[in-house]
Design goal:
The complex is a heterodimer of chains A (292) and B (187). Chain A is mostly helical. Chain A has 9 helices and 4 strands, in the order ααβαβββαααααα. Chain B is built from 5 helices and 8 strands; from the N terminus they run ααβαββαβββββα. Chain B has helices spanning 3-7, 23-35, 53-73, 96-112, 156-166, and strands at residues 38-47, 76-81, 87-92, 119-127, 131-137, 142-146, 148-149, 153-154. In chain B, the strands form 2 sheets. In chain B, strands 2-3-1-4-5-6 form a 6-stranded antiparallel sheet. In chain B, strands 7-8 form a two-stranded antiparallel ribbon. In chain B, helix 3 packs antiparallel against helix 4 (96-112). Classes of the chains: A mainly alpha (292), B alpha+beta (187).
Chain lengths: 292, 187
């Protein structure tokens, strides 16, 4: 007998988003190749970009956030809590890091389960009680368990190429007198722009679904959805803006407990995280599931 | 949890594996004969409580059954929450087999009622030239040694010696990074 059923709706939406993203990327690749862009260049670019992002973005985010790794003797309670959650979730123990900032937040990074880091801010530790901190840690551990770093890296890579092309193409081919290649460049610019915009929306959509999945995972790992609800409420209730968090962009910001970027200026469609209300509603449905 | 599960964001936790739990009984004989460690009459099982009235019902059922078996075997029990809000069923009985049976019963009821993923570990205390613990990880279905010292230190040398002695006798956790210590156990 199993208490936890899969959230088929969420999985289907996630699958559809990934499918659409793949379709956009394949079409983009087809256009690139049909325009005579060398296969080797595309492959090299893709490979190089993914390699860099996969292996170095965790170090980049840790240093850009000012996250300091902490030893077991410095933060014994967090280590104990994470260890038990890992034992329950069958994960290897990640490294723990702390960011000194009043803004309550947490994030996970690392290219795979063996090289994972979970970071929490001092603001989070001071505002939340132990059960709430545990719920947030479980949310981050679910990101690791679901390999969100890898999923989001793969999801973003061609979007970044499209973005670069949009930024660089206007400066290229201008001096070229060949009319054909001039119109080619214009076409490529339009295609890149469309790919960039569409993939951006899809990536953000996927990111929101991964957040729902991480919330659900946290409920499963802790067995206590209510603590995550109260943690999310407390975190969202205290919007202390900090400039340095705005520098964090791209796939990594998807792994925060709440958006590192201010959500107010961005519409729901472009947000990396679902609204607080949507998340709490989903968690309350899980609570009801447990009573069914 | 496979690749597809990760891709779809399914969080699947391993069910409790109880089949290897009994290995402690035979290992205890070797442990005493070779290194002089004897069962210390204390064991416990660590459970992550769940927010559900069904879970509460099962917990009461377990308490009733433990109360009944207490009359039969003389195994004493108490329920205790630790500082991280995990529930411990702490058992005491000089007979190791009774302890193993009681833990097996608790794990079986929880699994049957769908709370198998909530069972974290079982712990058996042994005493010899030091106090040592054997921790059974239900997720992996494997044992590992835990020898705590003061100030959250562990006697790793002794743990490896225990591993070397018993790796042929019982299913041991091969990945030492999963030898999770359990500080603040109520036994």
């Amino acid at each position: 007998m199993k208490r936890w059923k899969s959230d088929r709706g969420l999985e289907a939406r996630m699958l559809l988003t990934m499918f659409l993203l793949a379709a956009v990327y394949l079409a983009f690749l087809a256009v690139l190749l049909s325009m005579g862009v060398s296969r080797i260049i595309v492959v090299l670019f893709m490979g190089g970009f993914m390699f860099l992002q996969y292996f170095f973005s965790d170090k980049m985010i840790l240093s850009s956030m000012g996250a300091k790794p902490v030893s077991e003797s410095e933060e014994p309670r967090i280590h104990d809590m994470v260890r038990r959650l890992c034992q329950n979730a069958n994960l290897p123990m990640p490294k723990i890091a702390v960011v000194k900032t009043a803004m309550p937040n947490a994030f996970a990074t690392g290219r795979n389960q063996k090289h994972a880091v979970v970071a929490v801010t001092t603001g989070l530790l001071s505002r939340l009680n132990d059960s709430e901190v545990e719920a947030v840690l479980a949310h981050e551990l679910t990101h690791i368990k679901n390999r969100d770093m890898m999923v989001m890296t793969i999801a973003t890579f061609l979007s970044s190429l499209a973005q670069m092309l949009v930024q660089w193409l206007p400066f290229m081919g201008g001096g070229n007198r060949d009319r054909d290649s001039g119109s080619n460049v214009a076409l490529l610019l339009v295609v890149s722009l469309v790919v960039w915009i569409v993939s951006f929306v899809l990536i953000r959509t996927l990111s929101r679904y991964r957040e729902f999945a991480a919330d659900r995972g946290a409920a499963i790992i802790t067995g206590q959805p209510s603590h995550l609800i109260s943690a999310l409420t407390k975190i969202s209730g205290s919007r202390v803006p900090t400039e340095d968090l705005r520098r964090v962009e791209g796939p990594v910001s998807a792994l925060f407990i709440t958006p590192a970027l201010s959500g107010s200026s961005l519409s729901k469609l472009f947000s990396t995280h679902p609204t607080l209300k949507a998340r709490i509603d989903a968690l309350q449905r899980i609570e009801m599931e447990l009573e069914a | 949890m496979g690749f597809l599960d990760s891709l779809l964001g399914k969080t699947k936790l391993p069910e409790a594996k109880t089949d290897k739990l009994f290995a402690i009984s035979t290992a205890a004989i070797t442990l005493e004969a070779s290194l002089g460690y004897r069962p210390d009459g204390a064991a416990g099982v660590c459970i992550k409580p769940m927010e559900s009235s069904h879970y509460e019902t099962v917990r009461r059922e377990i308490e009733e059954l433990l109360g009944m078996s207490m009359k039969e075997t003389g195994t004493e029990y108490r329920l205790q929450k630790d500082e991280y809000n995990y529930l411990w069923v702490v058992l005491s009985d000089p007979d190791l087999d009774d302890l193993v049976n009681a833990i097996q019963m608790v794990a079986q009821i929880l699994t049957e009622q769908g709370f198998g993923i909530q069972i974290l570990a079982a712990v058996f205390r042994f005493r010899g030239e030091a106090v040592i613990y054997w921790i059974y990880n239900f997720k992996q279905g494997a044992y590992y040694p835990f020898v705590p010292q003061s100030g959250r230190q562990r006697d790793t040398a002794r743990e490896f010696r225990l591993k070397a002695l018993l790796q042929k006798e019982m299913p041991l956790e091969k990945d030492e990074s999963r030898w999770y210590p359990m500080w603040g156990m109520p036994l």
